[in-house]
Structure prediction request, 266 residues.
Amino acid sequence: MQRSGMADDDAEPYRLRLLSYNIQSGLSTHNYSQYFTRSWRHVLPVPSRMVNLDGIARVLANYDLVGLQEVDAGSLRSGFVNQVKYLADYAGFAHVFDQSNRKIGMISQHGNALLSRIRPDAIHEHKLPGRIPGRGVLEVRFGTGPDALHVLILHMALGQRGRLRQIEFLAELTHDCRHVIVMGDLNCRSDSREMAVLLESVRLCEPAPGLLTFPSWRPDRQLDHILVSPSITVERVEVLDPVYSDHLPIAMEVRLPEALRRLLAD
Prediction:
């Protein structure tokens, strides 16, 4: 387990436990060759999916806000189980929202999802620009007005050019937002050009760069990130080690600014 300790405070602030996880639709992968030798599992149901979902749900149960990528909303490959609802019910989340971005008939319903213990005030689904369609961002707003918290859950493109276009979109989307959390599989490293552009244009911080999340069986790069506005104090960041996917989940505990705490308490 990789962990980075952050700020500490003796006060009793409003804390949120965050988790971002690309769950690969409930499939586990243990080496690169399995992407080819077991490719059929991405279109057909297998019993191990449900075993993995139960394990994932036990991990999610420890958090307040969870952003999921590569989650299936109910299709042939998932045995027509809505994985978002299944995980939420198992882990006890009251508020659940999914965004299916890549629908292939009855075979797959591929997308992002939010599981929350706090009731959001607004949900918006956006399509991300890209040469190949099928990616989106789920925007969730807690509170109202200038001190609202905006949480964005997304899975960015594989190519650098596509990611840079998507970052331009995110910058426009968050232009007037004071408190922002971005969670997801960004498909780029902490030291990449795209990450530098994203942090500058969306006015975000990466509190603990370089925590390795991919591949899960021998992680050597960080593709999964939780980024926050400077107004949000990060107390702890860590990568968890359950191998239920080809990615490892990244977790963060944050302390919200006073104005936002009052807003959420109303």
In short: Residues 6-12 have pLDDT under 50 and may be disordered. The chain has one domain: 14-265. Residues 14-265 form a domain with the Deoxyribonuclease I; Chain A fold (CATH 3.60.10.10). DSSP finds six helices and twelve strands in the chain.
